[in-house]
Amino acid sequence: MPVRHVVLAMAVAVMWGLNFIAIDASLQHFPPMFLVALRFALIAVPTVLLVKRPDVPLRWLIGYGLGFGTVQFLFLYWGMAAGMPAGLASLVLQASGPLTMLLGATFLRERVSGLQLIGILVAVGGLAVVGWQRAEHASVIPFLLTLAGALGWAIGNICNRQARAANPLHLTLWMSVVPPLPMLALAMWVEGPSRIGDSLTGLGDPGAVGAVVGLLYTVVIGTILGSGLWTWLLSRHPAGVVAPFSMLVPITGMTAAWLILGETVTLAEALGGVLVVGGVLLGSLRRRAKPLQENMIRQALSKSDRAAVAAASEPGKRAA
């Protein structure tokens, strides 16, 4: 990639890493389930009015919205509200990579190479270390909720892949139309109208300013700008070249959480984080190697073709 595109990919990773700080700020005022509904409603309304619906099967659009939008953020926000630190949440959510590969192998019959399998095992080992540390020093429930969010992301990835949208950004925007209604219904049932009403009527409070800024950040910067730039990069470069930059997200998230929120991690959690990031990167190597193998095959075939042409023309040269 050109240097400017590398800078853009790194910028997106920083935007997404800081997204967890913004979510943490929003959760200080809004109840988590209502916050998910509010976040996607702010994107869904202009999307329905201004963006043409992508020409994809409705079942995959709904599946993408339910997996990526509803399940992922329901459990992520719930887990963070229950005590999952923002930095560790950015790390645990990377479990979506290995989970996507496993779901693809199970339901789409996609082949998993030996290297990918090793990467999955390494990442799972890292998650086990982080989960063990959470159980030792805090409640393990927030960790499991965040892990469930990663599973929702993986389900969304499978539906996204099956949709095969000509314009992935339009699919991402229209996915936001799915979560608001089910999340609002769930919020009314679990969190109650009184708690939701208090969060809306209290927007003028000084403590609510950070929550509103955080919400606007997740909508404008984290979703629209970040996803837009990421989609633009994927349209111009192989996925295997762009995707590894997402591994900068937990590094940014954990660093920002340390600097801004004062969060710290144990040595074992840091080791688990290295294993998770390393395992996901290892699992992506096959995709990067495949174009090289195909190029070598094409070169070999072109050499054999040239040899065949030379051999065919040899009798003509002798006759002349």
Description of the structure:
- The chain is mostly helical and 320 residues long.
- The chain has helices at residues 3-26, 32-50, 58-81, 86-92, 96-107, 114-137, 141-163, 168-175, 180-190, 192-201, 208-234, 239-242, 248-261, 267-283, 285-319.
- Helix 1 crosses helix 4.
- The chain is globular and about 55 Å long.
- Mean pLDDT is 84; it is low at 287-297.
Quick synopsis:
This protein is mostly helical. It has 15 helices and no strands.
Short descriptors:
320 residues; mainly alpha
Contiguous low-pLDDT stretches (5 residues minimum) are 287-297
In round numbers, the mean pLDDT is 84
Number of helices: 15
Task: Give the amount of beta strand, in percent.
Answer: under 5%
**First-residue to last-residue Cα separation:** 51 Å
The backbone outline, from C-alpha atoms, is globular
Share of helical residues: over 70%
Rounded Rg: 23 Å
Number of strands: 0
Largest sheet entry: none
Secondary-structure-derived class: mainly alpha
Topology (elements, then pairings):
Layout: H1 3-26, H2 32-50, H3 58-81, H4 86-92, H5 96-107, H6 114-137, H7 141-163, H8 168-175, H9 180-190, H10 192-201, H11 208-234, H12 239-242, H13 248-261, H14 267-283, H15 285-319
Helix pairs in contact: 1-4, 1-11, 1-13, 2-3, 2-9, 2-11, 3-7, 3-8, 4-13, 5-6, 5-7, 6-14, 8-11
